[in-house]
Design goal:
Length: about 900
C-alpha cells in the first residue's frame, strides 16, 4: 500500500496527541517559572523521537530555549556527552548573550574538564552542586524558560546519569523542563531506580509510550480507519509506528531474505543497534535469525558453531540490548520483532547462512521435529541438500494441505519437486507422488487459486508423472480440468495444446484423452464445444478406454441437445450412459470419469430425463466428495439442484444450490452463483416465499458480472410469475418488450419460454391474439424437439390462449393433458393441476350461470364491470369508495373462477 506522509516542511507532527498535550502544559509551566522533570519511556519505534521533536517545536513557539542532546552507545564512556552536545548546539544556534551566556560557557568548560576519579565514576557531590548552579544560571535562566531533552538516555554515561539524579533530588527553582527519554528494557538498573524513586517522590512524571490504537495507526499511514489493509498491518506491527510504516512500505512482501530490510531506512535503524557487537555475539545473533522466530541456547550454539557457554553469554548481552527477549516458555527466546529478525538474517553473509541452515536442518532432524520446522532450512541449505530432504519437503506440503493452508502447501510441493529432480537417481521415482500433488492442487482449487495451480503445472509435468506418455497425459488432463473449472479456459487449452503433439506421437490413447479433455474443459469453463469437433472425436474412439469413449459420447450428446437434434442426442447419451455405467463397480469414479458423468447428467437434465440425471450426478458427487475435487462441486451441485427442482424436491434443491453457491463464490465462478440464485428464487417462489434477491453484479459476493443465460431467465421468470409479478417475468424474457426483436431461445427451452410468455400475457391482460401467437410458437418449438416436457409446456400455452378466448372447457382439457405429461410432483405439473381446476370451475359456473353465488352488491358490481365501466365509475354509480369496489371484485373473481377484468367481462357477456 502507499504511504501518505503527514510531515510538511518545517513542521513536525505526531500522533501521540495526548502525550504532546501534557508536555505542552509543562512547557507553559516552565515558561511561567515552574520547573519539571519528565521520564519518557518507550520501546524502539514507539515514536519518542518524533514526539520530542514536536515538543521542541512547541517550546520554541512558546519562547523557551530548546536544548537537545542524544546519547549513543559509541559515546557511552564519554563524560557528559549529551549535555555538552546540547549546550554546544544551543550556543552555536545563537543563544542570548549576557550573564546566561557566561554561565553556559562556564558550564560547558566544567563538563568537559573531567574531575579526578572520572575513570572510576568517583564523582563528588560538590562538583554536581557546582554544575547545577551553572545550569540554573545558564540555560535555565533564559527569559522564557528552557527545555532540555536528553534522548536515548539508556546509553548515558555515568556522569550524565548522576547529574540527572542530582536534579531529581535537588530540583532547580527556575523554569527548566527536563525530559529524559529512554528504552526501559535497555536502561541500566541504577538509572531505572533513580527515575522510579523520583516518581515516588513526586519529582518525576512518567509518560510511557505503548502501542498505538488502530485509529492512530490509520493516521500514521494516512489512510481511512476502515481501510481493508489496516487490520493486517496493525496486527503484524503490534501498534508500533516504526514497524507499521515499514510493513506498509513493503506491501504484501514477506520473508527473511529480502534486501528491503537491509537497504531501507528501517534496516539502517535496526542494524545500527548491532554495530558495536563483538564477533561472537554477532555470529550468535545471526544464528538465531537463521533458526527462525524462536530459538534456544543449545540450538544457537550448534548453528553458530560455538560453545554453549559462549552462546549463553552472547545471548545475555543480546537480551540487555533488547534485541531478543524471553518468551512465556522456559528457555525459549525470540526476537523483539520479526522485522528485526529479517534485517539480521539478511545482514548475515550468504555463504555462512547456507551452512547455518544445514546445521539447523541436521539438528532438527536428529531431534525428530516436524517437517514444517525443518523444511525452511532445507530450502535454504544451498548445495548441501540431500535426496532425503525432498521427502521432508513433501511431508511439509502434505501437512499444510491437510491443515487448510494450500498456498504454503504449493510452496513446499514446488520445492520438493525441484529438489527431487536435482537429487534423484533417474529411476523415475520421487518423493512427490500423484496423490500428493493432486491433493495440493485440489486444496488450491477450493480457494480459487488458479494462479498457483498454473505455476505448478511445469513442475508437476517435469516430475515423475511427466516421464511416461500415459501418466503425463493424465496429469495434463487433470490440471487442465481444474483450471477450466476455475474459469481459466485459456490456460487450460494452452496446456493441452502444448502437450497434444507429443502425446499423439507417443500413444493414440494419450492423444485422444487430451483431445477429449479439450472439449470437456470448454464445458467446465461454461462454453459450448463445436459440435463438429466433438463428432470427429466420437468417430476416433475405436479402441479407446471406456472412460474416454463414454466422455466423448456424452459431449456429443450435450452438443446435440443444445443444437436441438434430439434424435442424435438420445442416441449419444444412451451410448454414453451404457459405457460409463459399465464402469460402476461400487468404487468412486475417477477424476476423468467424474467430469464425464457431470456432462452426461447435465445433458440428461436438459432432455428432461431427471431420474438418470440424478443417478449420474450423485455418482459423480460421491466420487468428488471422497477425493476433495472442490472444482467440480459448483457445476455438479447446480445440476443436482436443477434436477431436484424440476422433480419437485424443493428442499433438496435449495440445499444443493446453497452449498454450490458457497463453493462457486470461493472459486470466483459468478456464472454458477447466478444459476444457484435462479434455482433458489424459483424454489422459494414455488413454496410461496420470497428468497433474498441475488447479489448484484459487482458486489463482494460475486467475482464478476455474469450475462443472463436462457435457463437463468426462465427460472427467474417462473419465480416472478409464481409471485404474481408478470411484469418482471416479461422484463426477463423480453427485454425490449417486443417479441419480434428477440432472437429465438435455445431449442430445448423454447416451448417453455413461450409458455411463460403466454402466462405472463394472461396476468397482464394481453389480447387473445397475443396469447394465440405465443401458443403457436410454443407448439412449433415442442414439435421441433419432440421432448415430453416441452410438449407439456406447449399444452399449457394453448390452455392460456383458450382461456383468453373464453373457452374454459377446452383449456381445462389442455391443462389436464399437460399435467399427465409433467406428473404431479414437478412445479410445472403442480401449475398445470391448479390451472385445470380453475378452468373446470369456470366451466361449471358458466353452465349454472354461476352468478347466483354472488351477493346482491357483488352482482351489481359484476354487471357494471361487464358493461366495461372502470372502478372509479362503478364507485360513483353505487356511491361507495373505489377501495370497496376492489374488494368486491376480488370476491367476484374468486367465486367465478376468473383472474382479470377482461375475463369477467367475457363471462358476463356469455351469461347475458
Amino acid at each position: 500500500m502507499g504511504i501518505t506522509t503527514i510531515t510538511r516542511p518545517n513542521t513536525v507532527t505526531t500522533v501521540r496527541t495526548a502525550e504532546l498535550a501534557r508536555l505542552t502544559e509543562l512547557v507553559r509551566a516552565a515558561r511561567d517559572g515552574r520547573p519539571a522533570i519528565v521520564e519518557l519511556a518507550g520501546d524502539p519505534g514507539t515514536g519518542k523521537t518524533r514526539l520530542l521533536a514536536a515538543l521542541a517545536q512547541e517550546a520554541r513557539a512558546q519562547g523557551l530555549a530548546a536544548l537537545h542532546g542524544r546519547c549513543s552507545e559509541a559515546e557511552a564512556q564519554v563524560p557528559f556527552h549529551p549535555l555538552v552536545q546540547a549546550l554546544t548546539a544551543w550556543r552555536g544556534a545563537g543563544a542570548e548573550a549576557g550573564a546566561g551566556a557566561t554561565a553556559t560557557a562556564a558550564l560547558v568548560e566544567a563538563l568537559t574538564d573531567v574531575p579526578p576519579g572520572a575513570e572510576r565514576s568517583l564523582w563528588r557531590s560538590p562538583y554536581f552542586a557546582a554544575v547545577r548552579r551553572l545550569l540554573a544560571a545558564g540555560p535555565a535562566a533564559s527569559p522564557g524558560g528552557a527545555l532540555l531533552v536528553l534522548d536515548d538516555f539508556h546509553w548515558a554515561d555515568a556522569g550524565s546519569a548522576r547529574l540527572v539524579e542530582t536534579l531529581i533530588r535537588w530540583p532547580l527553582d527556575h523554569g527548566l523542563l527536563l525530559v529524559v527519554a529512554h528504552r526501559p528494557r535497555q536502561a541500566p538498573v541504577p538509572l531505572r531506580a533513580v527515575l522510579q524513586e523520583g516518581g515516588e517522590l513526586g519529582a518525576v512524571e512518567t509518560l510511557t509510550l505503548g502501542a498505538l490504537p488502530a485509529h492512530r495507526c490509520a493516521e500514521v499511514l494516512g489512510v481511512r480507519a476502515d481501510a481493508p489493509e489496516l487490520p493486517r498491518l496493525y496486527a503484524h506491527s503490534g501498534g508500533n509506528p516504526l514497524y507499521l510504516t515499514a510493513l506498509a512500505e513493503a506491501g504484501s512482501l514477506t520473508g527473511d531474505t529480502l534486501d528491503l530490510w537491509t537497504s531501507s531506512s528501517l534496516g539502517a535503524r535496526l542494524l545500527a543497534e548491532t554495530e558495536l557487537l563483538a564477533a561472537i555475539p554477532r555470529r550468535v545473533v545471526h544464528a538465531a535469525a537463521v533458526l527462525g522466530s524462536v530459538f534456544d541456547v543449545d540450538a544457537v550454539a550448534e548453528v553458530a558453531e560455538t560453545s554453549r557457554d559462549e552462546a549463553c553469554r552472547a545471548l545475555s548481552e543480546l537480551r540487555r540490548r533488547d534485541l531478543i527477549r524471553s518468551t512465556a516458555e522456559t528457555g525459549v527466546l525470540a526476537f523483539r520483532h520479526p522485522l528485526l529478525r529479517g534485517c539480521l538474517y539478511a545482514d548475515a553473509d550468504a555463504c555462512w547462512r547456507s551452512g547455518a541452515h544445514r546445521r539447523a536442518r541436521d539438528r532438527f532432524g536428529r531431534l525428530g521435529l516436524p517437517a514444517l520446522v525443518i523444511a525452511p532450512h532445507i530450502e535454504r541449505a544451498g548445495s548441501g541438500m540431500r535426496p532425503a530432504d525432498a521427502e521432508v519437503l513433501a511431508v511439509a506440503a502434505r501437512s499444510c494441505a491437510q491443515a487448510g493452508r494450500p498456498a504454503e502447501a504449493a510452496h513446499w510441493l514446488r520445492s520438493a519437486l525441484r529438489l527431487g529432480r536435482r537429487t534423484g537417481d533417474g529411476s523415475g521415482a520421487g518423493p512427490v507422488g500423484t496423490e500428493l500433488w493432486q491433493q495440493v492442487v485440489r486444496a488450491l482449487a477450493a480457494e480459487g487459486d488458479a494462479e498457483r495451480i498454473a505455476a505448478l503445472v511445469a513442475e508437476v509435468l517435469a516430475g515423475p508423472d511427466g516421464r511416461s506418455p500415459g501418466r503425463r497425459a493424465g496429469a495434463a488432463a487433470f490440471l487442465a480440468a481444474v483450471l477450466a473449472a476455475l474459469g481459466h479456459d485459456e490456460e487450460a487449452q494452452a496446456l493441452l495444446a502444448a502437450e497434444l503433439p507429443a502425446a499423439q506421437a507417443a500413444s493414440p490413447g494419450a492423444g485422444l484423452l487430451l483431445r477429449v479433455s479439450q472439449q470437456l474443459g470448454k464445458v467446465l469453463a461454461g462454453q459450448i464445444p463445436a459440435r463438429t469437433d466433438v463428432e470427429v472425436l466420437v468417430h476416433g474412439t475405436d479402441g479407446a478406454d471406456p472412460v474416454t469413449a463414454g466422455g466423448a459420447l456424452g459431449l456429443a450428446g450435450l452438443c446435440a441437445v443444445l443444437d436441438g437434434d434430439m434424435c442424435a442426442a438420445e442416441m449419444s447419451l444412451d451410448a454414453a450412459a451404457q459405457a460409463l455405467d459399465e464402469l460402476d463397480s461400487g468404487r468412486p469414479a475417477g477424476d476423468q470419469e467424474a467430469g464425464h458423468l457431470l456432462v452426461l447428467s447435465w445433458a440428461e437434465a436438459l432432455m428432461g430425463w431427471y431420474g438418470p440425471a440424478y443417478g449420474h450426478a450423485e455418482r459423480a458427487l460421491t466420487a468428488v466428495r471422497s477425493r476433495g475435487d472442490a472444482h467440480f462441486l459448483p457445476p455438479l451441485l447446480d445440476t443436482l439442484g436443477y434436477v431436484h427442482y424440476q422433480s419437485g424436491r424443493l428442499a433438496d434443491a435449495l440445499g444443493a444450490v446453497r452449498e454450490g453457491a458457497a463453493a462457486a463464490r470461493a472459486m470466483g465462478r459468478g456464472d454458477h452463483v447466478a444459476l444457484s440464485d435462479a434455482i433458489t428464487a424459483a424454489a422459494w417462489a414455488q413454496l410461496g416465499r420470497n428468497s433474498p434477491p441475488p447479489a448484484a453484479a459487482g458486489s463482494p459476493r460475486r467475482a464478476a458480472p455474469e450475462p443472463r443465460t436462457p435457463l437463468n431467465a426462465l427460472l427467474l421468470a417462473e419465480a416472478s410469475l409464481a409471485s404474481g409479478e408478470a411484469g418482471a417475468a416479461l422484463a426477463l424474457l423480453l427485454p425490449e418488450r417486443e417479441a419480434w426483436r428477440v432472437s429465438e431461445p435455445v431449442a430445448v427451452f423454447a416451448a417453455r419460454n413461450y409458455e411463460l410468455l403466454a402466462a405472463a400475457a394472461v396476468q397482464t391482460e394481453a389480447d387473445a391474439d397475443t396469447l394465440d401467437a405465443w401458443a403457436e410458437r410454443a407448439a412449433a418449438a415442442a414439435a421441433a424437439v419432440g421432448l415430453v416436457e416441452q410438449s407439456g409446456h406447449a399444452l399449457l400455452a394453448r390452455g392460456h390462449a383458450l382461456m383468453a378466448r373464453g373457452l374454459p372447457a377446452e383449456a381445462a382439457q389442455c391443462y389436464g393433458e399437460a399435467r399427465k405429461l409433467f406428473g404431479d410432483s414437478s412445479p410445472a405439473g403442480a401449475r398445470a393441476r391448479a390451472l385445470a381446476r380453475s378452468a373446470a370451475r369456470v366451466t361449471d359456473r358458466r353452465e349454472s350461470s354461476g352468478l347466483d353465488e354472488l351477493t346482491l352488491r357483488e352482482r351489481e358490481v359484476a354487471e357494471l364491470a361487464g358493461e366495461g365501466l372502470k372502478t372509479k365509475d362503478i364507485a360513483g354509480r353505487l356511491r361507495v369508495s373505489p377501495r370497496t369496489v376492489d374488494v368486491h371484485l376480488t370476491h367476484i373473481y374468486s367465486k367465478l373462477g376468473v383472474n382479470s377484468r377482461a375475463a369477467l367481462v367475457r363471462l358476463m357477456a356469455l351469461a347475458g
